[in-house]
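User: Good morning. I'm curious how coenzyme A would be positioned relative to this chain. Could you predict the structure with it bound?
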Amino acid sequence: MDKKWKTAISGIIDGEAHIHGYKVTELIDKVNFTDAIWLELKSELPSDKERAMLDAILISTIDNGLGPPSVTNARNSASAGNPMQAAVAAGVLGIGDAHGGAIEECARLLQMGLTAEKLVEKVLGSGDRIPGFGHKVYKDEDPRATQIFEKAKKLGFYGEHCELAQNVEGVLQEKKGKKIPINVDGAIAAVISDMGFDYRLGKGFFIIGRVVGLVAHIFEEWVREKPFRRIADEEIEYDGAPPRSLKKT
Ligand SMILES: CC(C)(COP(=O)(O)OP(=O)(O)OC[C@H]1O[C@@H](n2cnc3c(N)ncnc32)[C@H](O)[C@@H]1OP(=O)(O)O)[C@@H](O)C(=O)NCCC(=O)NCCS
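Assistant: Good morning! Here's the predicted structure, ligand included:
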């Protein structure tokens, strides 16, 4: 009889956990973490070049300082007295379309087979921003994106999607009259597309890498700061209704 839950990823065979057919104990002995991540996502172990590229992608997402919402969310949650799993979850929920989450939509657009002109027209025409472009801090160039493209060229993963993404940057500049550089999300979106990953895995790459940074930030919050951080009163302005009384009806 067909069982209700099926998976081709992993299972207990002869009393031992296997991932895509390999014993976990053999993986522990012989491969590294990036190999195992690739195996989970792609069903096979990576080549040396694939491992190096995935390593680079994951490292680029680990941490970009205390400022971004994923890290502030995690540290605020830790500061409120939550345990590790809750604070990590809060940090992951800080990832969204404007922060880290643009990889998925950018990869989807790049995988549609449009020209750079049509892609820009389509997105701007519907009043949206092009995911994977622009940055709060890196106004001229996101060095992480540049490094990822360089690595992709060296390792043979700079293909049509990377080229398209870099052409989009040029078309966007023409349309907006100023440079809106491709960011780390955009570069990852382009490279994973050239590596044959489904765009729906896009956010997953950022989450896998960023969780490492979140764990470190949460622990630092616990050991270095007093509990209950709050925004200083001098940074908060109330501009709502003036004090008033409830009238009896
Ligand atoms: C990341 C982001 C929020 C940074 O925003 P910002 O630097 O504060 O940019 P601003 O909101 O000041 O916008 C400045 C101008 O650039 C435009 N712009 C910024 N990013 C744009 C994008 N990705 N596509 C189109 N236009 C963009 C804005 O529309 C605005 O144009 P205007 O002056 O004509 O109104 C923004 O670039 C964005 O939403 N990017 C897409 C999402 C993304 O890739 N996020 C991952 C970041 S690592």
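The beta strands are 10-13, 16-19, 22-23. Residues 98-99, 102, 129-136, 176, 180, 183-185 surround coenzyme A (CB under 6 Å).
Let me know if you'd like a different ligand tried.
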